[in-house]
Amino acid sequence: MILSFLFPPRCAVCRKLLPYGSKPELCDDCGRDLPRISDPRCQICGRPMDSEFAMPWCQTCSKGRPFEKCFVPFLYDRGVRRLISNMKYYGQPSKARFLAGEIAREMGGFRPDAITFVPQSSATDRVRGYNQTRLIAKELGRLLDVPVRPALRHSPGDRHQVGLSSSERRKNARGMYLPGKKRLSGTWLLVDDVTTTGSTLDVCCRLLKAMGCDRVYAATAAIRDGKKF
Predict the structure, then answer these.
(1) Are 18 and 11 contacting, i.e. CB atoms less than 8 angstroms apart?
(2) Bridge partners of 217?
(3) How distant is the alpha carbon of residue 138 from its chain centre?
(4) CATH class as words, domain 13-223
(5) Predicted confidence band at 227 (pLDDT cuts at 50, 70, 90)?
(6) What is the pTM of this model?
(7) Do 43 and 69 contact (CB within 8 A), yes or no?
(8) pLDDT over 90 (residue 197)
(9) How far is CA 86 from the centre of its chain?
(10) Which of 5, 67, 154, 177 is most exposed, with minimal Cβ within 10 Å?
(11) From CA 70, how far away is CA 171, in angstroms rounded?
C-alpha cells in the first residue's frame, strides 16, 4: 500500500497517472492508439499484407524462412515506437513487462520448450546496463512458465544495424552473431524487440537450427511497416 502511494501506476506510454489498484498498464487513450497488427497478415513473418493479396504469406516468406512463424503484436509506430525507445535508450526497462504480455497474447496456446533472445554487444550492455531483448524474454518466460536460456553470442565489436540498407543489414547480420557452445534440441523461441528487414531473425534462427533445434519460432514486439521483409 505504501509503495503504491509513493509510486502510483502510470501509463506505459504517456506516463499519465492511472487509478490505484488498476491492472491495465495503459490509459484508455494510449490503449486505443496502439498500432496493433490485424489480418490480413503474412502467416509466417506477421507483416501486414494488402487485402487483395490471395496468398497466406508474403513474397519473401514464400521463398522459405529459417523460422516456422513470427509472433508480433504491433507495428513500430506511434505509442509503440515511444514505448520501445524509452525502454532501449532512456533507462525504462520495466516496459519489457507490457511488451512480453502482448507477445504472449499473440502466441495464444503455443508453448516452446525454451526461450532465448538476440544478444547485443558487451559495449552496449555496459552503456544501457541491460539487454532489452533479454528482459522481454525473461518476462515472457515468467508468463508462460518456460525456461529462458542464452544460446547465441554477439561477435566482438559494437556493430549496429541502424541506418543500414536492406542488403547492408543482411551482410552485417551474418557477421554479427555467433553460435553458442552448447548443443540444443527441441522447439525454441527467439525473442527480439523490433524487426526491420528480418535479417537478424534469419541469421539467429539459422544458427539455432545448426546448433540442433528441431524447430525455431520467433517473437518480436514490433515490426517496421513496409512491403518487403
Answers:
(1) yes
(2) 189
(3) 12
(4) alpha beta
(5) very low
(6) 0.86
(7) yes
(8) no
(9) 15
(10) 5
(11) 21
